[in-house]
Amino acid sequence: MRIAVVLTANGRRGVEFAALLAQAANEAFLQRAKAGWWARFGRASPLLYESGIRYAREDRCSETEELRACSEERFVTIPELYRIGVGDCDDLAAAYAAEARILRGDRGARVHVIQWRSGHYHVVVRLGDGTLEDPSARLGMNKGADAKPAKADGCCGG
Q1: SS3 category, 24
Q2: Angle of the 11-32 helix axis to the 89-102 helix axis, nearest 10
Q3: What is the DSSP string of 49-101?
Q4: What is the pTM assigned to this prediction?
Q5: What is the pLDDT along the chain (158 residues), one digit of tens a residue?
Q6: Nearest alpha-carbon partner for 153 in 98, 102, 105, 87
Q7: C-alpha to C-alpha distances, 26 to 19, 21, 66, 112, 118, nearest whole angstrom
């Protein structure tokens, strides 16, 4: 069963609210997950950077999904991310922030939204020590045939 939480996110604060909801859902999942859950999805590790998950831009205009508007931004949780094997900046950052908090004990880690001059947003992780970690960059953003400048990532509209 799939459950969708639908909300309107206006501006950077709205995007950050949605990313924090995804982070909280991921934290709840990791707190309750049974040992070895990642193997069910064919992944080698529960740790994002060791899982084989890669960055991919979200296809907002897929004709294969019913009732999906081109402007809809999807924030997927860890089980869906591990099932499909790819995620965009909001998916990867929410997963990594939850991992940092629950699996590595960094209680200060949280998603952080950057607004580009173009009006687009990019979601990263601010660790407890204040440093920024960009899971999208670590997992393939701006590499290969699908490469686009970070500003053009398209995350979260504009």
Answers
A1: helix
A2: 50
A3: GGTT-EE----TT-TTSTT--TTPPP---HHHHHHHSEE-HHHHHHHHHHHHH
A4: 0.84
A5: 777 777 888 889 999 999 999 999 999 999 999 888 888 888 888 999 999 999 998 876 655 555 555 667 889 999 999 999 999 999 999 999 999 999 999 999 999 999 988 888 999 999 999 999 999 999 999 875 444 444 334 455 54
A6: 87
A7: 11, 9, 25, 15, 29
141 CB neighbour count, 10 Å cutoff: 25
Determine the straight-line distance between the first and last CA of the chain, rounded to whole angstroms: 31
Using DSSP bridges, classify how beta strands 86-87 and 121-126 pair: parallel, antiparallel or unpaired.
Answer: unpaired
Residues 6 or more apart whose CB falls under 8 angstroms from that of 125 comprise: 93, 96, 97, 100, 109, 110, 111, 112, 132, 133, 134, 135
Residues in Cβ contact with 136 at an 8 Å cutoff, skipping those fewer than 6 apart: 55, 88, 89, 92, 93, 122, 124, 153
